[in-house]
Inverse folding.
């Protein structure tokens, strides 16, 4: 049987437990945070941008004259090996005549009729002069016989000889006129011809064979199908895939911070990171419009591979890569993660953890990249800073490091 004393004791214990629970839940709990340690390490500041691979020396095979180029692919394909002055990469045929409209066709027919009449007229004139020449020669023979007997004067004999020479010259001139008129007729007949099937490639006189100017591989076939091209039109591009480099168009504000010989890391191409170095920075920039429509001043920068060809053998011409060009490096820099920094007025600051509480510390930074910043003053090696502080973190707040998952 319970006594009043036992009831009072039980009530007091219950009230005590309830009060302890209230105090426990009301008491501020430490805020879980991620913490990083300020340490010394190798730090680099890089210029990062997209770039493309490119064969250093690309040779373009162009059409030497206007004409018809036969289909190149097939028989040739991108990647085919070619040999200098031996491999035929393209075949060209002469330009075929175009179609005539009705008016032009009628004009040509009329011209052909006139040419035929001129040939007939010249042929008749040849016959007339041949007869005249024969007559003058007969007269000359008669005059020579009479001159021997003294029946005619020397002047008459000279006149007979002159007639023969004049008729011979006139006949030669008229025969030449016949040749001229015949050629004019043939020219008009050729113009009347309509486009016909091209000559066979078996006839070596019909075509121009364009051979590879250098040994290497076909990088690009500009004119794949058969078609008419103008003189100078590009047909095929040839180069050596082992003569590969990277070309980056960097912002001019970044290019001025880079020097030839700067080390480069090349990635973003689907394979391991490749080492490279800057070999050339153009002295002149150019205007380029970004995908967002922003006008940017860019500078052409060339990068050579440092790693052996085996490391980048799967790269080809015009492949996309990402380059990281080093413009500053310190092998023993005191660094703090960028995620631990925030702005306090015009200064940089960080929350340092000491004895379970955070203290706001103003710091000065030097160089920085997308991961860490160089500490100029305000932090020491071994200091612990809160990463990505939330709005719950204030000066003096209790924190505890979040367990690693």
């Amino acid at each position: 049987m319970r006594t009043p004393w036992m009831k009072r004791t039980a009530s007091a214990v219950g009230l005590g437990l309830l009060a302890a629970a209230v105090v426990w839940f009301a008491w501020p709990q430490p805020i879980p945070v991620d913490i990083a340690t300020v340490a010394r390490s190798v730090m680099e500041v890089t210029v990062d941008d997209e770039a493309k691979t490119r064969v250093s020396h690309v040779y373009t095979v162009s059409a030497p004259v206007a004409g018809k180029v036969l289909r190149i692919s097939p028989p040739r394909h991108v990647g085919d090996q070619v040999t200098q002055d031996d491999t035929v990469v393209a075949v060209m045929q002469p330009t075929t005549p175009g179609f005539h409209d009705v008016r032009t066709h009628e004009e040509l027919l009329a011209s052909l009729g006139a040419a035929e009449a001129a040939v007939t007229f010249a042929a008749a004139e040849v016959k007339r002069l041949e007869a005249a020449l024969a007559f003058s020669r007969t007269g000359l023979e008669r005059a020579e016989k009479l001159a021997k007997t003294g029946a005619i004067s020397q002047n008459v004999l000279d006149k007979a000889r002159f007639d023969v020479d004049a008729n011979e010259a006139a006949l030669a001139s008229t025969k030449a006129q016949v040749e001229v008129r015949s050629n004019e007729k043939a020219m008009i007949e050729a113009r009347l011809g309509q486009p016909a099937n091209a000559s066979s490639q078996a006839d070596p006189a019909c075509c121009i064979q364009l051979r590879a100017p250098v040994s290497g591989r076909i990088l690009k076939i500009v004119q794949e199908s058969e078609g008419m091209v103008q003189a100078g039109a590009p047909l095929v591009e040839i180069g050596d895939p082992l003569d590969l480099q990277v070309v980056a168009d960097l912002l001019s504000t970044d290019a001025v911070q880079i020097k030839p010989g700067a080390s480069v890391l090349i990635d973003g191409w689907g394979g391991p990171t490749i080492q490279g170095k800057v070999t050339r920075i153009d002295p002149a920039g150019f205007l380029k419009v970004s995908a967002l429509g922003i006008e940017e001043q860019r500078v052409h920068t060339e990068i050579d591979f440092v790693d052996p060809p085996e490391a980048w053998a799967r790269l080809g011409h015009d492949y996309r890569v990402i380059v990281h060009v080093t413009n500053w490096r310190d092998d023993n820099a005191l660094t703090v993660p960028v995620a631990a920094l925030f702005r306090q007025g015009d200064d940089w600051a960080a929350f340092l953890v000491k004895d379970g509480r955070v203290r706001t510390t103003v710091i000065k930074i030097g160089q920085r990249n997308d991961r860490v910043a160089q500490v100029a003053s305000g932090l020491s090696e071994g200091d612990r800073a809160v990463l990505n502080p939330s709005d719950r973190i204030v000066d003096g707040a209790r924190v505890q490091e979040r367990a690693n998952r």
